[in-house]
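Issue: copy button drops trailing tokens. Both records pasted manually instead:
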Amino acid sequence: GAKPVIKNSSYFKIHATTTFIGITFDGQNTSNYAITTRGEAAKDLILTNCEFKNFKESNICIYENTTLTTLDIDSCVFDGTSTTPVAIYGKGIVTQTTIQDSEFKNYTEYCIYANDYYGARYDNLTINNCLFHDCAYSAVFLANAKDGLEKQSCSDFTLTNSTIYNVGAASTKGRGVVELRTNSNIASDQEVLIDHVTLYNFASSDNAW
């Protein structure tokens, strides 16, 4: 049957290990977020077969001064409906992120974003068998450190068996379709693996990586 729908609610602020299965989150263009970790020492966030749409700022926001042990996303659809800037906005730390069999589409900026201006970091970020399309800037953007400080917004990064298209059309800053900024420092003993990824129809002013 159809998924249960949570409409126009205040965001879920998770405090402990939390699992959502088969839920549609509809912000109806009035709610800022569906799920946040604002000011909480959350542990695990597990999303399976969920759908997100019509939020004003982002679907998931991991706030600064927060550590999330695990972010596990499986078989979800993130739809920015051409109004939401970012699907997953990282300001805090996620120790293990796994995203698989999911779709990201119609965002006015980024699909997955970590801004180490706030000390954000995705450790062990793995994306497999996902579809990213019709997003104005990058599919994945791990931002550079503020003031040239050597902060690290990602450790090991894996992107496999995925397709990215119609990304970057609105970018005027030469964004990469997948961008790991050099100042963000993926260290020499850490790994970046990009394998079996299909790219097409991204802005000519942008780089693929």
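Record 2 (pasted manually too):
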Amino acid sequence: SAIDGAAVFDANFTAVSEGSATFTESSSNGATVTINSTGAKPAQIVGRPWALGDAAGLWAQTTFVQAAPYAVCAAVQFNTWASADVLFDGKTANSFAAQQITGTPQIRMHDGSADTATVSPVLKTRYILFASQAADGSTRYRLNLGTAVTGTMSATGLAGLTILSDGAGANQIGAQITAITALSSAPSVAREEQLIRAMAAQSGVTV
């Protein structure tokens, strides 16, 4: 209810589904509310915490030691596009970088001397991103349960994990991550798909 009269606008954001682009507010006017989701810091309805990178200084890093094989699985959304920006990497720049490339939305795994083929995400769409590297440098990379792309990289060991930039804090990205895990193995395809489905269920991502 409103004080001194009926409400002419009553938007209860807590009742709106996560990721909604529009909703109808509950006053008698029934106005349509549109969420302005443009730019590196989009307004959005969320039901869980997200680490938001704005391509201008927001990134994070942790330290650990892991030789190949290893894998990284993350629930992500790309908000802006700039070639060479990095979603995640090791602690050393370009040790295991999920790197945007070219002028259209494509992303690949990159280690400074070798690359996988690319996959093509859609901006403002949520994905589970899975990348693994075997001890011999064989690398798999996929979005959701889509076809994996492959390549042979340098089997560089990880000194840690960086999100929303490369390992040196450069090439920061306009993207967001709600969950990320690093594994000390390169799982089988069957196990990889189990992990993707589990993180999707946890993170509200449709795969």
